[in-house]
């Protein structure tokens, strides 16, 4: 039997996907603004962050409304809880894309640094993780979610290697320090976006299987 | 019999009629009191019920919500010594006005009760009952309306092959949907539902709730329910009654998420009631 609650759930899912698309777009533009030294594009991403924030509020209100009105249980409850946990992750990823743009604008005022080979890869890997995390949510695909979680180790390694790369530039010439530090921040921002994708995927596993897989060290210690 | 007296100052206090047709309430209640003999059971109720929406009345037992709903189609007329005071307007016309045809009123304002009450007749004859009383004899027209009513009540597919079987052989949930079909057959504008699902199991209850959700496209629905979660699920507007008074009325999201009155908050959070 089709319940009218199913329509509410579809609507909520649709809103979350719209927010997800906006966040993916902000992320892609922030990478382009950084790599192509495009200050105008960076400013555009910063200006559009408010839309994503507003979307977060709309989803929060709708979710709270559904809890109050429909008293969801079982998979409905897990769905609503998942939405409540995913939305702030997406909003945080958008904020980090905005941070990338702010640093990119600052970098554009300084002489260009030698290429940092791992940084574009790091950015693209983080972007793929966010996209895959959203796909895993849409399709209810716990296997994909687990693969994304595993990818996080690569992103961590890339963050570390790009930091070491930047450190050598700083040691080479003190005039590189300002740009290199900004780029180090940027590396960290992408690493945090990948962490956001990981958190989303942990919730997808919870949604599909009802299992909380985050903080595995704690779970292992309890056993 | 019910007598209705409107004091001049009550008349003066009545709000002006809304100018936009879409905003006009279907049912408009002003300063309505109700008495059983000397006992006053409703106190000064004023409430607008919008068209093609579900308005749920909630409140503890004995708070007056059933008395209120029965005042709308004058079901209380049959109770000796019962009388109301104040006005209940449907489309701007006073239900208790001298020229009201009570039979016609009850055709326009259908009612479904807590306990399903099919007549001991066939499924077909139950739905045809009001139509035949209204003078309809044409078999083809009857067939059409009966199919349409049973379809609207989400029962057609379950009974279409046994329309001439006894209605009493249906399950409780089916009997209740049959009663809804019977009410719909005479083409009402308003449906009053007095705890329509309280005697049903959860699956039959959710069928009735889904049905209410569908029916509000075409009908103005007023439902009395003891089940707060049900009120939250099915209604657009919710009115909270307590000791014969209307404590708070509003958009259901306000009532269940952020009520203005402490008493409403206490009731919807289960602190009393």
Keywords:
heterodimer, A: 223 residues, mainly alpha, 8 helices, 86% helix, globular, B: 273 residues, alpha/beta, 6-stranded mixed sheet, 4-stranded antiparallel sheet, 11 helices, 36% helix, 23% strand, disordered N terminus
Question: What is this structure's SSE topology?
Answer:
The complex is a heterodimer of chains A (223) and B (273).
Chain A: H1 4-35, H2 39-47, H3 49-70, H4 74-108, H5 118-139, H6 142-172, H7 177-209, H8 216-222
Helix pairs in contact in A: 1-2, 1-3, 1-4, 1-5, 2-4, 3-4, 4-7, 5-6, 5-7, 6-7
Chain B: H1 8-13, E1 27-36, E2 39-49, E3 54-58, H2 65-72, E4 82-90, E5 93-94, H3 102-108, E6 109-112, H4 123-133, H5 139-152, H6 156-159, H7 172-185, E7 190-194, H8 202-215, E8 220-224, H9 228-234, E9 237-242, E10 245-251, H10 252-257, H11 262-268
Parallel strand pairs in B: 3-8, 3-9, 6-7, 7-8
Antiparallel strand pairs in B: 1-2, 1-4, 4-5, 9-10
Report on the structure:
The complex is a heterodimer of chains A (223) and B (273). Chain A has helices at 4-35, 39-47, 49-70, 74-108, 118-139, 142-172, 177-209, 216-222. Chain A is mainly alpha-helical. Chain A is globular and about 70 Å long. The model of chain A has no long low-confidence stretch (mean pLDDT 93). With 273 residues, chain B is α/β, with parallel strands linked by helices. Chain B has eleven helices and ten strands. Chain B has helices at 8-13, 65-72, 102-108, 123-133, 139-152, 156-159, 172-185, 202-215, 228-234, 252-257, 262-268, and strands spanning 27-36, 39-49, 54-58, 82-90, 93-94, 109-112, 190-194, 220-224, 237-242, 245-251. Chain B has a six-stranded mixed sheet, sandwiched between helices. The two termini of chain B are 33 Å apart. Mean pLDDT of chain B is 90; it is low at 1-8 and 10-21. The chains are: A mainly alpha (223), B alpha/beta (273). Chains A and B meet through helix 3 of A and helix 8, helix 9 and helix 10 of B.
């Amino acid at each position: 039997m089709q319940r009218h609650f199913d329509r509410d759930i579809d609507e909520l899912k649709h809103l979350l996907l719209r927010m997800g698309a906006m966040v993916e777009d902000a992320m892609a533009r922030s990478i382009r603004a950084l790599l192509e030294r495009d200050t105008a594009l960076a400013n555009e991403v910063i200006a559009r962050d408010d839309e994503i924030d507003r979307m977060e509020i709309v989803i929060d209100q709708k979710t709270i409304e559904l809890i109050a009105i429909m008293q969801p249980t079982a998979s409905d409850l897990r769905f609503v809880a998942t939405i409540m946990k995913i939305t702030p992750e997406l909003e945080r990823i958008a904020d980090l894309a905005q941070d990338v743009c702010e640093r990119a604008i600052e970098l554009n005022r300084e002489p260009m640094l030698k290429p940092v080979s791992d940084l574009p890869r790091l950015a693209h890997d983080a972007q793929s993780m966010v996209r895959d995390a959203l796909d895993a949510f849409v399709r209810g695909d716990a296997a994909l979610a687990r693969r994304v979680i595993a990818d996080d180790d690569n992103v961590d390694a890339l963050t570390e290697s790009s930091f070491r790369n930047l450190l050598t530039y700083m040691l080479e010439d003190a005039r590189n320090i300002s740009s290199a530090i900004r780029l180090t921040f940027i590396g960290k921002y992408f690493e945090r976006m990948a962490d956001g994708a990981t958190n989303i995927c942990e919730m997808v596993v919870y949604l599909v299987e009802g299992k909380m897989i985050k903080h595995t060290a704690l779970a292992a210690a309890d056993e | 019999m019910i007598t209705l007296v409107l004091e001049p100052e009550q008349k003066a206090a009545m709000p002006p009629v809304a100018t936009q047709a879409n905003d006009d309430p279907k049912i408009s209640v002003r300063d309505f009191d109700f008495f059983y003999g000397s006992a006053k059971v409703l106190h000064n109720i004023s409430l607008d019920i919008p068209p093609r929406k579900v308005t749920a009345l909630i409140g503890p037992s004995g708070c007056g919500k059933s008395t209120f709903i029965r005042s709308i189609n004058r079901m209380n007329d049959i109770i000796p010594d019962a009388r109301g005071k104040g006005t209940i307007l449907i489309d701007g016309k006073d239900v208790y006005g001298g020229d009201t045809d009570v039979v016609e009123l009850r055709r326009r304002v259908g009612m479904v009760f807590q306990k399903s009450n099919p007549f001991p007749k066939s499924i077909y004859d139950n739905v045809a009952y009001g139509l035949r009383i209204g003078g309809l004899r044409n078999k083809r027209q009857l067939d059409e309306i009966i199919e349409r009513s049973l379809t609207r009540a989400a029962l057609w597919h379950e009974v279409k092959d046994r329309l001439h079987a006894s209605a009493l052989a249906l399950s409780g949930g089916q009997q209740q949907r049959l009663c809804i079909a019977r009410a719909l057959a005479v083409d009402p504008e308003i449906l009053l539902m007095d705890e329509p699902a309280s005697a049903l199991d959860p699956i039959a209850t959710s069928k009735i709730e889904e049905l209410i959700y569908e029916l509000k496209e075409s009908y103005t629905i007023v439902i009395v329910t003891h089940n707060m979660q049900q009120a939250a699920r099915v209604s657009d507007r919710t009115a909270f009654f307590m000791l014969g008074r209307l404590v708070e009325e509003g958009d259901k999201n306000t009532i269940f998420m952020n009520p203005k009155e402490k008493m409403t908050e206490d009731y919807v959070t289960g602190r009393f009631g």
